């Protein structure tokens, strides 16, 4: 991807140089972009797939642990794996240079025929001495019978044919919670398990031949080797005996595909617009295509909202309207290494920063596929490959120091689908505005006044609490309580995303936003609440735009939220711990409750290259932290200075400070040894958590930069008996 950036940058530089020497080009002199010889494979394509799968590993062994030793006690249930039908859909994007075709694809497929053993079977002879003659397995057939992937593709085109190879990261193939029973329901005979777990990378590799039927339609025949890795299940009876099941899930896949390519030109035909002020109001003139004003500068991060300056929106007029994009494909990759030296600590707990020091790294690679469905309607999907861990496994500090670290880490690359959503915009008039192409943004024009609805899976922070100076952990600050309101406990799974719906009404100088979203099924869980509105959060925000200071466009936002779900109360947990002489556990007294909070968000430019931000937030600290972090109140502020004054306009310096705090109920709980979702040192000598962050972003080229970041954290996890922590980070980021 970085090589692609370099190639694009060189092309832009050459174009710029030629324009300076040759003067303004005339329309008749503009050379047409040469199309590749043979069929043109460039652009976005969609397709359907149908084929069959052949499983490689049909056997399974349940090995006893904790008492029954030796292979004589292994259980070998007969396999019910068989070949089956594979069908699904995909989206992809191709680049082409001569005969060479490079691209990326993402897909979702049903993999029929995969099932774990289920039924009643004879036990091995060794069990006769234990009075066990048979055993039973109860397993669902359908869970995990799918695979999805995010793959790269390289091919060679000859006339209408494309021969290609492909490789990428896959997911799916897990088994859900299961049951094992020896003989009958006698005590100790029932063993239960959770879902299969795997620490190895799941991948897919193969190749195929694609044939162009005409300029848009093509057919393909394809082979894939799918490895969904070792799956491990632990069957536990709550006593001294366990069984462990290990299965390897591999398949040969043969399939056919029918695909439609939308073409290399992703712009809609120019639309006629009424000329303002024309006599009679009936005359029209063809709108001219304009250059995207900001497309060459670094983006402001992933966006599902178009009602923010961070979405790169610029004033335009009906006579100065760009053509609209039919589809888009963008990508990003971010590598972040972070560590700290030894720190002072009188004691440590389960959720503490290790005092010995630590270095960890994370990597993320994301694809952004977007398509215009109809007037005002757009659909997006963002497959992402992640790898790595945050320092201390993403605990130890309430204002956690890395926006690239999820609460769930893996040593091997793994595939997720953090976003898939539909956006619908209704124009309400006013002067036109231009939306520049970007991640989750289709370039085009919109009314200045508009209604925007978004439904699907995305992050609440994509819509709410935006700030151009502190909200994008891949281009700017990286501390959680700098880029978001620290006390904004918004609905999300452990990765930061959830399912929901939001609405935005933008009018003149103000915008109103609201949304309803699912909480996770239990606090800080990887899984979203499956029952609609059983556990949910509601968010509202009012934004006012002004030019009261420095003749620059500033913003003030007021935000409020309410989470309704099954959550514990800190003081009840402390009281129960005292009564039972145990460490308090807030998860032991969860009932349905509602927690509320809110905050203010200010962004104010001083000049075109210098701006300030300020956030303050507060929530009800009596109930446990549900999703974000263990912060009851937070105040943050800072500035960002771009490098115009030293002739490096794409560079930037940022400095920010944060003060985070807890409620009295939280202080008592953590002092008694309780654990939160982010902190828990086993004891607490309370003081506010004070954070200073500074960074320098050095541009390496168009869309590629290297950032050095330093954070000083005084009283990590609010504990005067630990720290300070000096945390250093280096981030390499590229996008196109």
UniProtKB/TrEMBL annotation:
Cellular component terms (Gene Ontology): membrane
Tell me which domain of life the UniProt entry assigns to the organism this sequence originates from. Answer: Bacteria
Which GO MF terms are attached to this record? porin activity
Annotated family: Belongs to the Omp25/RopB family.
- Which species does the entry assign this protein to? Methylocystis bryophila
One GO term (biological process):
carbohydrate transport
| Composition-biased stretches (Polar residues) | 304-321
InterPro entries reported for this sequence: Carb-sel_porin_OprB, OMP-like, OMP/PagP_B-barrel, OprB_sf
- Which residue ranges are recorded for the region named Disordered? 14-38, 272-329
Organism lineage: Bacteria, Pseudomonadati, Pseudomonadota, Alphaproteobacteria, Hyphomicrobiales
Identify this protein by name: Uncharacterized protein
């Amino acid at each position: 991807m970085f090589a692609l950036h370099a190639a694009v940058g060189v092309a832009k530089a050459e174009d710029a140089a030629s324009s300076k020497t040759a003067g303004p080009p005339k329309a008749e002199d503009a050379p047409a972009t040469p199309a590749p010889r043979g069929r043109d494979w460039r652009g976005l394509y969609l397709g359907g797939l149908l084929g069959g799968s052949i499983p490689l590993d049909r056997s399974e062994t349940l090995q006893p642990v904790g008492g029954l030793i030796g292979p004589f006690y292994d259980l070998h249930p007969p396999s019910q794996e068989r070949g089956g039908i594979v069908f699904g859909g995909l989206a992809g994007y191709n680049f082409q240079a001569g005969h060479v075709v490079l691209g990326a694809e993402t897909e979702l497929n049903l993999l029929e025929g995969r099932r774990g053993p289920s039924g009643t079977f004879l036990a091995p002879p060794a069990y006769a001495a234990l009075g066990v003659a048979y055993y039973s397995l109860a397993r669902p057939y359908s869970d995990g019978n799918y695979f999805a992937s995010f793959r790269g593709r390289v091919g060679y085109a000859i006339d209408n044919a494309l021969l290609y190879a492909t490789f990428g990261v896959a997911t799916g193939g897990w088994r859900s919670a299961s049951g094992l029973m020896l003989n009958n329901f006698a005590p100790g005979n029932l063993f239960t398990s959770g879902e299969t777990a795997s620490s190895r990378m799941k991948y897919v590799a193969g190749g195929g031949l694609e044939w162009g039927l005409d300029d848009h339609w093509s057919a393909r025949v394809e082979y894939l080797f799918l490895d969904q890795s070792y799956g491990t299940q632990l069957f536990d009876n709550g006593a001294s005996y366990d069984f462990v099941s290990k299965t390897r899930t591999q398949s040969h896949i043969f399939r056919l595909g029918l695909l439609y390519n939308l073409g290399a030109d992703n712009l809609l035909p120019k639309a006629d617009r009424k000329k303002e002020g024309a006599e009679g109001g009936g005359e029209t003139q063809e709108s001219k295509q304009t250059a995207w004003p900001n497309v060459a500068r670094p983006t402001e991060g992933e966006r599902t909202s178009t009602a923010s300056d961070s979405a790169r929106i610029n004033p335009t007029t009906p006579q100065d309207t760009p053509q609209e994009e039919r589809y888009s494909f963008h990508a990003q990759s971010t590598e972040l290494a972070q560590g700290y030296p030894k720190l002072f600590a009188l004691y440590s707990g389960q959720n503490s920063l290790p005092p010995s020091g630590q270095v960890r790294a994370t990597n993320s690679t994301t694809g952004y596929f977007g398509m215009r469905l109809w007037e005002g309607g757009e659909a997006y999907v963002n497959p992402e490959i992640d790898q790595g861990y945050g320092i201390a496994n993403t605990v130890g500090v309430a204002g956690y120091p890395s926006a690239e670290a999820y609460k769930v880490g893996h040593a091997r690359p793994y595939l997720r689908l953090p976003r898939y959503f539909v956006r619908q915009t209704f124009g309400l008039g006013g002067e036109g505005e231009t939306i520049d192409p970007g991640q989750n943004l289709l370039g085009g024009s919109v009314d200045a006044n508009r209604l925007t609805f978004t439904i699907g899976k995305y992050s609440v922070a994509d819509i709410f609490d935006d700030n151009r100076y502190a909200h994008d952990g891949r281009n700017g600050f990286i501390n959680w309580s700098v880029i978001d309101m620290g006390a904004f406990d918004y609905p999300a799974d452990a990765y930061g995303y959830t399912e929901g719906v939001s609405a935005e009404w933008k009018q003149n100088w103000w915008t109103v936003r609201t949304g309803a979203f699912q909480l996770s099924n239990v606090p800080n869980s990887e899984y979203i609440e499956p029952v609609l509105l059983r556990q949910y959060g509601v968010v509202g925000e009012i934004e006012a735009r002004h030019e009261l200071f420095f003749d620059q466009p500033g913003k003030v936002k007021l935000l409020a939220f309410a989470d309704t779900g099954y959550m514990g109360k800190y003081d009840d947990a402390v009281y129960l711990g005292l009564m039972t002489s145990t460490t308090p556990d807030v998860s032991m007294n969860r009932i349905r409750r509602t927690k509320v909070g809110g905050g203010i968000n200010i962004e104010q430019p001083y000049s075109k290259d210098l701006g300030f931000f300020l956030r303050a937030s507060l929530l009800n600290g009596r109930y446990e932290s549900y999703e974000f972090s263990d912060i009851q109140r937070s105040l943050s502020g800072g500035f960002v200075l771009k490098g115009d004054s030293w002739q490096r306009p794409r560079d930037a310096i940022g400095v920010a400070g944060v003060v985070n705090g807890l409620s009295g109920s939280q202080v008592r709980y953590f002092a008694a040894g309780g654990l939160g979702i982010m902190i828990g040192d086993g004891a607490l000598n309370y003081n506010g958590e004070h954070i200073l962050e500074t960074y320098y972003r050095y541009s390496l080229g168009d869309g590629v930069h290297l950032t050095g970041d330093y954070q000083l954290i005084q009283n990590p996890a609010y504990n005067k008996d630990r720290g300070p922590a000096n945390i250093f980070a280096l981030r390499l980021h590229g996008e196109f």
